[in-house]
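ok new one. same drill as before - structure tokens go in, u give me an amino acid for every spot. 583 of them this time. try not to just spam alanines like last time pls lmao
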């Protein structure tokens, strides 16, 4: 009897299942490539799934009737599709998703993105390149140097092997510390002090980015101050349109690890995102005393957005973005002699055992968007970034005769400085402070307000767009350095004299800048015309207090001022043969 009841139960379950319907299909991008990890769900039934590596999905055990299917994928448009299911029906549903650069409505994506994504990139008159979320997820690089190898015309000089402080150049501009490009995150200047000291000792962690953009030529007339060199914009993870979370953990070479985790959601009028990204490694170099040569970098980011209904007469949104980055790297400027490099290329001399850089960056941005109509929109952004770093590293070696030799000259010609070389390598002991370490201690800030006004209109034959922007910006570098001396004892460095902060270099460099630009875009048939003009007014002030005035009383103050005004015109013309080819 028990077996009969069980059989009847299984038969009943089989009949119920057979009466349920199934929806299946494939998700692809505009090029027909399958999209994995696309979320496909019927929210009313609390039922969903994700596409596999081939872009395929299947929703089973669905009741008959009318259903609304929601389809979403980070970095792509969100689709909602209404379907009618009959009893026991198997319905095929294939769909194509188009990339979007940000989570904002299409009319306001220009506030964060330079290109507008893959589709918008085809409308540029200059040279532009968009690295999509799909490309980033495919390779999962945490090193921006590897990511930018996908982009033609980008010049890269490797330094530490992990991409922590990249050297990037565009259009033949210099690559040193990426100081000749306009570096941005979500359309906001991100170099430590973009005008006063643009050398990028801080670079946003590419491992937490959703996409990257590179602009060269007339298409980036809107972006400065380094308009001639080009612009690099990193687009951070955007707020998802429904509750979504991600955790990615990787074990890397050289004892390294990577963690990227975020959670976010959107509601009727409030959206949020909380994110963390950590990257670390034991390093691949080998110190003579077996000391550490690795690094650890941690990012934390929060986004909060309040907004009106998307179909409101005037759509408005206010987005707060706050982030913090901490880094500790046991990295050095010191190289190797040619002979030592041939024998042990990953060696580090004992004299570099205390070399390290500590850095901290905080960012805050408040962005307001208003869409008065499909034709007219306004964006205003307040931003403030702080960055501090101290690269504590070997600067000179003093031999037993009292001659101080810089590290570059020493490794280039060790035969001429044999005694200093032996001290550097820990081959001999010293009692005096023969090893001179410099604390390259600097504090930066950059802050400002920028506004963009966009007016678009169409006629029977043309699409036209007028964009105007203005930015007031102020940044500063506070250089407050000192020297310490060490002796070498059996390969271990011992402090002999601790310097006074401000006695090696003691100055402030402050920049105030007014930037304004206007760009007109005309689309007619397959032609696009885009003239533009940019204004940069910059005032620089250097206050040098001298090495004898660490308290900055001003007794030895030397002030130097400089001001410049530049008008930068640009124009571009594009003819589009088809959706794949243009010139």
């Amino acid at each position: 009897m028990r077996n009969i009841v069980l059989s009847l139960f299984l038969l009943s379950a089989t009949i119920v299942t057979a009466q349920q319907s199934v929806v299946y299909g494939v998700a692809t991008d505009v090029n027909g490539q399958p999209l994995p990890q696309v979320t496909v769900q019927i929210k009313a039934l609390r039922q969903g799934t994700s596409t596999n590596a081939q872009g395929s999905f299947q929703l089973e055990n669905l009741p008959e009737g009318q259903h609304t299917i929601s389809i979403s994928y980070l970095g792509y448009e969100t689709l909602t599709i209404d379907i009618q299911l009959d009893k026991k029906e198997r319905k095929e549903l294939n769909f194509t998703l188009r990339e979007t650069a940000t989570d904002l409505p299409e009319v306001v994506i220009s506030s964060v993105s330079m290109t507008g994504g893959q589709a918008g990139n085809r409308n540029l008159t200059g040279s532009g390149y968009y690295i999509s979320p799909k490309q980033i997820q495919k390779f999962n690089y945490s090193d921006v140097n590897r990511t930018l190898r996908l982009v033609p015309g980008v010049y890269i000089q490797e330094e530490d092997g992990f991409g922590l402080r990249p050297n990037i150049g565009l259009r033949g501009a210099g690559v040193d510390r990426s100081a000749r490009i306009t570096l941005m995150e979500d359309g906001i200047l991100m170099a430590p002090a973009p005008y006063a000291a643009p050398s990028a000792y801080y670079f946003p962690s590419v491992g937490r980015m959703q996409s990257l953009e590179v602009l060269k030529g007339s298409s980036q007339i809107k972006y400065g101050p380094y308009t001639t060199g080009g612009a690099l914009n990193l687009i951070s993870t955007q707020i998802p349109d429904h509750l979504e979370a991600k955790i990615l953990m990787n074990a890397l070479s050289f004892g390294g690890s990577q963690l990227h985790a975020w959670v976010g959601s959107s509601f009727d009028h409030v959206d949020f995102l909380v994110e963390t990204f950590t990257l670390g490694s034991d390093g691949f170099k080998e110190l003579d005393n077996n000391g550490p040569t690795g690094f650890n970098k941690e990012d934390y980011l929060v986004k909060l957005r309040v907004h009106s209904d998307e179909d409101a007469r005037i759509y408005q949104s206010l987005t707060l973005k706050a982030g913090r980055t901490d880094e500790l790297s046991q990295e050095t400027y010191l190289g190797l002699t040619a002979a030592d490099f041939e024998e042990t290329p990953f060696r580090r001399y004992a004299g570099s055992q205390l070399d390290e850089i500590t850095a901290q960056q905080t960012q805050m941005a408040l962005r307001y968007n208003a869409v008065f109509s499909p034709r007219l929109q306004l964006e205003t952004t307040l931003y403030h970034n702080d960055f501090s770093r101290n690269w504590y590293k070997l600067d000179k070696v003093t031999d037993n005769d009292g001659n101080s030799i810089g590290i570059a000259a020493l490794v280039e010609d060790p035969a001429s400085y044999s005694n200093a070389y032996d001290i550097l390598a820990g081959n001999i002991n010293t009692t005096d402070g023969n090893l001179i370490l410099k604390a390259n201690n600097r504090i930066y800030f950059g802050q400002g307000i920028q506004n963009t006004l966009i007016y678009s209109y169409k006629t029977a034959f043309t699409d036209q767009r007028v964009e105007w922007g203005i930015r007031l910006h102020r940044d500063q570098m506070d250089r407050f350095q000192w020297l310490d001396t060490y002796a070498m004892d059996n390969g271990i460095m011992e402090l002999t004299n601790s310097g006074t902060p401000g006695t090696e270099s003691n100055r402030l460099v402050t920049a105030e800048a007014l930037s304004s630009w206007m760009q007109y875009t005309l689309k007619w048939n397959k032609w696009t015309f885009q003239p533009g003009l940019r204004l940069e007014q910059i005032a620089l002030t250097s206050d040098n207090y001298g090495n004898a005035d660490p308290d900055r009383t001003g007794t030895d103050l030397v002030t130097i001022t400089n001001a410049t005004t530049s008008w930068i015109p640009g124009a571009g013309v594009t003819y589009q043969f088809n959706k794949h080819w243009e010139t």
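The longest strand covers residues 462-489. and btw Helices lie at 2-19, 117-121, 133-139, 144-148, 338-343, 407-412, 418-425.
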